[in-house]
């Protein structure tokens, strides 16, 4: 199953790849205005879901300066429509994959093929209505525990600490 978090990460990574390519091209063509707008300190504006009026103006100006960035932003926004209605999710996903491949933007073309291969995992959210958030949380706790201790020599002790931190073992109960 591909949850919302990972899907948005893939979309943001593709958008950031396009931003980097266009930034490099703008610097080569000595387009200072576009290079300033695509600089890394403004990249997070492209990745946000909720945009304020000030940021909306900046995005509008960026869209008028560079068509590829605008197309990449539209593809990202269009993908989010898949999660709005479960009845049309399959059709919307198919349309998005076709649009991504036809865009001729390498990052989104690759992502379109990736989502085509994993479409059953994307659509399984609508069948099961569950995400991987709990397992992600447990994995993060385990990683944090391992980093805090700089590793454990005894695997059994490490397993006991995992159980303790994940709530599977209550140290206050007498055995």
What labels would you give this structure?
mainly alpha, 175 residues, single chain
Describe what this molecule looks like in 3D.
This protein has 175 residues and is an all-alpha fold. It has two domains: 4-128; 133-165, no CATH class. Helices cover 73% and strands 0% of the residues. The protein is built from ten helices and no strands. The protein is extended. The two termini are 39 Å apart. The relative contact order is 0.11.
Number of strands: 0
**Helical/strand content category:** mainly alpha
Largest sheet: none
The proportion of residues forming helix, as a percent range, comes to over 70%
Mean of the pLDDT scores?
Answer: 80
Query: How many helices in DSSP terms?
Result: 10
Which residues form runs of ≥5 with pLDDT under 50? none
